[in-house]
Amino acid sequence: MGLGHYRAELPDWQEDNVRIFKLGSPAADLIGANLKPGAEGDALIRGAVSGDAHEILDQVREIVCS
After folding, report:
1. How many domains does the chain have?
2. pLDDT for residue 16 is more than 70
3. Which of 8, 12, 26, 48 could serve as a FRET partner for 60 with CA atoms 20 to 30 Å apart?
């Protein structure tokens, strides 16, 4: 269906949170950049933090670091 999820394994319990996103979307790109460090991802993140995107990056950091 073109969806991805963050948590490598989906939990069995419905109360556990999972991040669902559309593959190929800007959100998916940022999540991937955070999960797989590298020069290309770093450039994507730097570009995203300009302007209002800073708030989005903060949200992605909360997701990845929790």
Report:
1. 1
2. yes
3. 12
Give yes or no for residue 53 having a pLDDT over 70. Answer: no
- pTM of this prediction exceeds 0.70: no
Q: Angle at the Cα of 51 (from 45 to 54), degrees rounded to 5?
A: 50
Does residue 27 fall inside a structural domain?
yes
The answer to whether position 56 is within a domain reads: yes
39: its two tokens: 């020069």
The two three-digit tokens of residue 47, written as one number: 């570009």
Domain enclosing residue 30, as ranges: 23-66
The three-point CA angle 1-36-60 to 5° equals: 70
